[in-house]
Design goal:
Blueprint lengths: L6 H10 L7 E5 L4 H8 L5 E6 L4 H10 L7 E4 L9 H14 L1 E7 L4 E4 L5 E5 L15 E3 L3 E4 H10 L10 H7 L5 E4 L10 H11 L6 E11 L9 E3 L2 E3 L13 H13 L5 H4 L12 H14 L2 E11 L9 H12 L6 E6 L5 H4 L3 E12 L3
Helix pairs in contact: 5-6, 8-10, 10-11
Bound molecules: magnesium ion (MG).
Magnesium ion (MG) binds next to strand 10 and helix 8.
Length: 375
């Protein structure tokens, strides 16, 4: 999944929406064929979903065989590159129709080394390969997809390639082996291949804005004041505050942290504080709500969420909260590993109206924004 849609769906959308692409053939693992068929139902340009082979070249060959007769240029694209742009597709199509075959490439700016199985450097690859009697080559290029070719040329390359003795790593190398020209067009650094789990988060960042996985949650809580003789301490925002009476509750009754927990759980759709910490469970009797907040934060991390910011409002006639705001921000920030400028705490009264106005209790609301964590 990538920002709410599958990789396949995003890649197919990019291809479907390109005006010069008229037909798509999908080559998938045989056990995925049925699921892929369902997923492609929404894409009118999908002509066939074929069972791929054991290697990339076999899968591409089966796709090639399923192309309609009238297709003149074919692009071979990794479904794992969902960020392919229309401009890149245009460049490859145009160069393939002129030169016969084309691939998008990015000049390597990093130094490339070959390592042995222990991870020790064996060799540094020259970036400007010198060949005797010839000018230096332009340098090493990292090649992406889509790789384009005239269908007739790629079919011919497949027929001629010595598969018994060599394993091609891409379509272009088949055409190179034939001695035909493969033109390199500028690739796109954003056209990343989703290979490792952390690539998903990177791709979501690249998608940016509305497409990036950003969520909001809301939390609300009320606690009544305990009578002064109960001797309860007033806890708010993770700190103890001097006041004649504390709040009633199973835990330390930190109404602000409870609203915050619910906002975070709500954003991640992970239930609510009552589900996570039932007030019938003696384990949570008088527990510090900071430890509940810490557990909530851990749950979010386990589900690959990180906090962008939180904003809370406490409604109370007394005590005055402004003098304690910095201490609350610090306690919450330490618990959530969040900078103070992402933790907003506001306070208001209810103008003597309602239960807050009658000083019977304190009310708190909170909003939390979270985003997909990089790891
Ligand atoms: Mg509560």
């Amino acid at each position: 999944m990538l920002a709410g849609a599958t990789l396949l769906h995003r890649t197919l959308s990019a291809l479907q929406n390109h005006p010069h692409i008229s037909c798509i053939v999908l080559s998938v693992a045989p056990e995925e064929q049925e699921r892929a068929l369902m997923e492609t139902a929404a894409f009118s340009k999908v002509h066939a979903v074929v069972a791929g082979g054991a290697t990339r070249w076999e899968s591409v060959l089966r796709g090639l065989e399923a192309l309609p007769e009238w297709v003149d240029i074919v692009l071979v694209h990794d479904a794992a590159r969902p960020l392919v742009s229309a401009e890149l597709i245009d460049r490859v199509l145009q160069a393939a129709s002129q030169a016969g075959a084309a691939v998008p490439g990015l000049p390597l700016s990093d130094t490339v080394k070959r390592a042995d199985e222990l991870g020790n450097v064996q060799q540094t690859i020259s970036r400007t390969m010198q060949r005797e009697g010839q000018p230096p080559l332009q340098g090493l290029t990292a090649v992406q997809t889509p790789q384009g070719a005239k269908v007739e040329l790629l079919r011919r390359a497949y027929q001629a390639f010595p598969f018994d003795s060599a394993e091609p790593t891409d379509e272009a190398s088949l055409i190179e082996a034939l001695g035909e020209t493969v033109r390199i067009v500028p690739g796109d650094p954003l056209n990343i291949k989703i290979t490792r789990p952390e690539d998903t988060a990177l791709a979501e960042r690249l998608l940016g804005g509305a497409a990036a996985e950003i969520r909001t949650g809301f939390g609300y809580d009320v606690h009544a004041f305990a009578p002064p003789e109960a001797g309860r301490t007033l806890y708010l925002g993770g700190i103890a505050i001097e006041h004649p009476c504390g709040l009633e509750g199973h835990s330390d009754a930190d109404v602000l942290l409870h609203a915050l927990c619910d906002a975070l759980l709500g954003a991640a759709c992970l239930g609510d504080i009552g589900m996570l910490f039932p007030n019938t469970d003696p384990a949570y009797r008088n527990i510090s709500s900071l430890s509940l907040l810490k557990t909530v934060h851990q749950k979010l991390r386990e589900n690959r969420w990180e906090i962008v910011n939180i904003d809370a409002t406490v409604t109370a006639e007394a005590p005055k909260l402004l003098p304690h705001r910095a201490a609350m921000q610090q306690a919450i920030g330490q618990c959530l590993q969040l900078e103070a400028n992402r933790i907003s705490i506001k306070a208001t009264t209810s103008e003597k109206l309602g239960f807050v106005g009658r000083r019977e209790g304190i009310e708190a609301s909170a909003v939390a924004v979270i985003r997909r964590a990089a790891q």
